[in-house]
Amino acid sequence: MKNRAKEMHPCFGAKTNRGRIHLPVSPVCNLECAFCSRKINRTENRPGVAATVITPQAAVEHVRRALVFCPEISVVGIAGPGDPLASDAAAETFKLVGKRFPHLLKCLSTNGLLLDERADELIALGLDTLTVTVNAVEPEIQTKINAGLVYHDGRYEGEEAARMLIRNQLAGIRKMAKAGILVKVNTVLINEINSAHIAHIAREVSEAGASLYNIIPLIPQHKLENCAEPTCMDLIAAREQAEKYIEVFRHCRHCRADAVGIPGQNDFADRIYAERFAFEETFSHG
Ligand code: SF4
Ligand code: SF4
């Protein structure tokens, strides 16, 4: 399964031209990341935004049309706009799309809060590739990046929340990697907060079974609007730290949660989605 994913997935090292379609089926999120201007309530409160999120049933037709425009598409990815595990829409979509287009790889990107408890379900769905965003593996650092989270029926803050998130992310990665699923980890590089922590993250996620690591420079906004935007030199330094422990992915295009086409070459989203997201260009779990 791993080899097939490596050959066919543009974000996991495919050498030939391969495309992906992101299906924006997951509007809800359960974290409060300081750099993300997509809040849970904003998603729920703004009329019209919901209309731009498609249903699992509609997703099947979107994939069919996308393949007409871009036959190179080999991956169906679900990366948001919220967290794909915070609702059942992503799982339902993979079931429907998988039945109709069994040759396409299934790729999911998540913040990992619910990964440990939903891992068996994802494995049973036949997920091929997984991306987990891990911004810290030490609670004191994590608290500076994420103010709080909603887990089942409770809201948690501070180090308690941070410990819960880190534990669930690493346990989830372990389960998924053990089942043969190719796991990539994304980290948002924030000079003021986690730049000296990159090697530690890379080591922990590699030990848990992740095989690729992608460092995304912060886009300073929301609560982190006063942070510096990492320079190329900052990025190179962070990658050098990570490379001691894990293979580093260098071609990330920061795809939106509704991207369609070959990364860096074309994008057919305007033709596939009648109305693209009203969300600001901010962060994608991809
Ligand atoms: Fe949620 Fe992702 Fe935004 Fe964090 S970055 S609040 S996990 S959508
Ligand atoms: Fe999968 Fe992320 Fe690539 Fe999308 S950008 S296809 S979610 S790895």
Structure commentary:
- There is one protein chain.
- This protein is an alpha/beta fold.
- The chain has eleven helices and eleven strands.
- It has helices at 2-8, 40-45, 56-69, 89-100, 115-125, 139-145, 158-178, 191-194, 198-208, 232-243, 269-272; strands at residues 19-22, 31-33, 73-78, 105-110, 129-133, 146-151, 154-157, 182-189, 212-217, 248-249, 260-261.
- The strands form two sheets. The chain has an eight-stranded mixed β-sheet, with helices on both faces.
- β3 (73-78), α4 and β4 form a beta-alpha-beta unit.
- α6 (139-145) packs across α7, α7 (158-178) crosses α9 (198-208) and α9 packs across α10 (232-243).
- It starts with a helix and ends in a 14-residue tail after the last helix.
- The structure holds iron/sulfur cluster (2 copies).
- One iron/sulfur cluster is lined by residues 11, 20, 22, 75, 77, 79, 107, 109, 131, 255, 286.
| Biggest sheet record | 8 strands, mixed
> If you compute it from the alpha carbons, what radius of gyration comes out, rounded to the nearest whole angstrom?
17 Å
Q: Structural class, from secondary structure content?
A: alpha/beta
Percent of residues in helices:
25-40%
Q: What's the mean pLDDT score?
A: 87
The ordered H/E elements are: HEEHHEHEHEHEEHEHHEHEEH
| Strand neighbour order, sheet with most strands | 10-9-8-5-4-3-1-11
Strand % is 15-25%
Residue windows where pLDDT falls under 50 for at least 5 positions? 39-51, 277-282
Global morphology = globular
State the end-to-end distance. Answer: 20 Å
Strand elements, count: 11
Q: Quickly count the helices.
A: 11
Q: Hetero groups bound?
A: iron/sulfur cluster
